[in-house]
UniProtKB/TrEMBL annotation:
Residues 230-378 form the Acyl-CoA dehydrogenase/oxidase C-terminal domain. Belongs to the acyl-CoA dehydrogenase family. Pathway: Amino-acid degradation; L-valine degradation. This is Acyl-CoA dehydrogenase. Residues 11-116 form the Acyl-CoA dehydrogenase/oxidase N-terminal domain. It comes from the Bacteria. It comes from Candidimonas nitroreducens. Its cofactor is FAD. Keywords: Branched-chain amino acid catabolism, FAD, Flavoprotein, Oxidoreductase. PANTHER family: ACYL-COA DEHYDROGENASE. One of its GO terms (molecular function) is flavin adenine dinucleotide binding. GO terms for biological process: branched-chain amino acid catabolic process. Residues 121-217 form the Acyl-CoA oxidase/dehydrogenase middle domain.
Length: 388
């Protein structure tokens, strides 16, 4: 749902201009320095990027799902590191609070997150609980007015720079699976919380990811999300269901960018006495990229509108995430191919996108996990429910 087209269109135009004029020219610098420079973070904050999905009452823009998807498609037409920098505030790091936080918790944290003064992160995954997140072992033992957390989280985006961690931990050791899990808001500087060294990754230089360790980390019971024990996995799933549509939109921007760059290249480079773009096998690659990008965009925007209308989009969110992330991988592969040897050379930029976007098929549910979700829902709808 677009609430007011007259104000939303200029917002998208100005975002598009900011991406082209400020972010794209700084892509190589971010990759080289392995960080988004502070001055650009400040500019992104001034553009309200940290608060896209946070309600207006807390200083955010309160974008609807359709508006957020359209903004994500624009914002992601540059190096993935930029949107990863804001992405935990506009997404997984704030969404648990927005969905299930108490009024007090929202008031305490959301204004700083929306303004980009503080950075959020979402800590669900553990070394032995990846795709099966319900197997998580980080414990949260009640002790008076506190919970005491012990355990390790891995692969946490923005953990090295985060001020606030939404942590899923098992508060009821007697309840295996989802039921015994609660969500906690843990502030940087809390004794017993430490973060690991940022991983050396395949791509997304400038987006720091690390482990988070809890060693008798004492968290006030007031920081239990929503004040509800045993509700943490539901909160996490609410976050991820929305985020899957958001991430699907974030897969479309890089695909558009890669195709545009590849088309500029094949229009300029000549072989056999003519521009590469004249060869029909090259045109076939362009057509396949364009077709899949448009299909993903239609799917994501339709699902976003359905979510805005209050429909249950659990299966469709998985379809969006699965199709868009796989689509982006296929587009990246074709675009490297169109550039020939230059597609493999760092100076031409395509190889960076190729590496950066590989993550899309792995996090927030691997493609295989989404295939399972889609199949289970389809079978259930057809009257053939399957067990776990
Ligand atoms: C850079 C990066 C950033 C991340 N950011 C975050 C973050 O901010 N917060 C967070 O909580 N997590 C984060 N993650 C974790 C991410 O969500 C997990 O890596 C992902 O869920 C997969 O878990 P795993 O790596 O343990 O793989 P595994 O679960 O071990 O899976 C390995 C392979 O087995 C397949 N597989 C597993 N189970 C099944 C099954 N039942 N059927 C068929 N195939 C199956 C998978 O599809 C995959 O191909 C991040 C990961 C990375 C790499």
């Amino acid at each position: 749902m677009i609430r007011d087209k007259d104000s939303f269109d200029p917002f998208l135009d100005s975002l598009r201009a900011f991406v082209r004029e400020r972010l794209v020219p700084n892509e190589e610098r971010v990759a080289r320095e392995n960080a988004v420079p502070d001055e650009l973070v400040a500019e992104m904050a001034a553009q309200h990027m940290f608060g896209y999905s946070i309600p207006e009452a807390y200083g955010g823009l309160g974008l609807t799902m359709e508006e957020l998807a359209l903004a994500a498609i624009e914002l992601s037409q540059c190096s993935v590191a930029f949107r990863a920098r804001v992405g935990t505030n506009t997404g997984i790091g704030s969404e648990g609070l927005v969905a299930d936080g108490t009024a007090q918790q929202k008031q305490r944290y959301l204004p700083d997150l929306a303004a980009g003064r503080k950075t959020a992160s979402f800590a669900l995954t553990e070394p032995e609980a990846g795709s099966d997140a319900t197997a998580l072992k980080t414990s949260a033992r009640r002790d008076g007015d506190d919970f005491v957390l012990n355990g390790t989280k891995c692969f946490i985006t923005n953990a090295p720079i985060a001020d606030l961690y939404t942590v899923m931990a098992r508060s009821d050791p007697d309840k295996p699976g989802a039921g015994g899990i609660s969500a906690f808001l843990v502030e940087r500087g809390t004794p017993g919380l430490s973060v690991g060294k940022p991983y050396d990754k395949m791509g997304q230089a400038g987006s720091p990811v690390s482990e988070v360790h809890f060693d008798n980390c004492r968290v006030p019971a007031a920081n239990l999300v929503g004040g509800l024990e045993g509700h943490g996995f539901k909160t996490a799933m609410k976050v991820l269901n929305k985020q899957r549509i958001h991430l699907a939109a974030l897969c479309i921007g890089p695909a558009i960018r890669m195709l545009n760059d590849a088309m500029a290249f094949v229009a300029g480079r000549r072989q056999f006495g003519q521009a590469l773009m004249n060869f029909q096998l090259v045109q076939a690659m362009i057509a396949d990229c364009q077709t899949e990008i448009q299909a993903a965009q239609a799917l994501v925007l339709q699902t976003a509108r359905q979510r805005d209308a209050g429909e249950d989009v659990t299966m469709n969110a998985s379809i969006c995430k699965y199709f868009s992330s796989e689509m982006c991988g296929r587009v990246a592969d074709r675009c490297v191919q169109m550039l020939g040897g230059y597609g493999y050379i760092a100076d031409y930029g395509m190889e960076r996108f190729y590496r950066d976007i590989r993550l899309f098929r792995l996090y927030e549910g691997t493609s295989q996990i989404h295939q399972l979700t889609i199949a289970r829902h389809s079978l259930k709808q057809a009257g053939h429910p399957v067990g776990r």
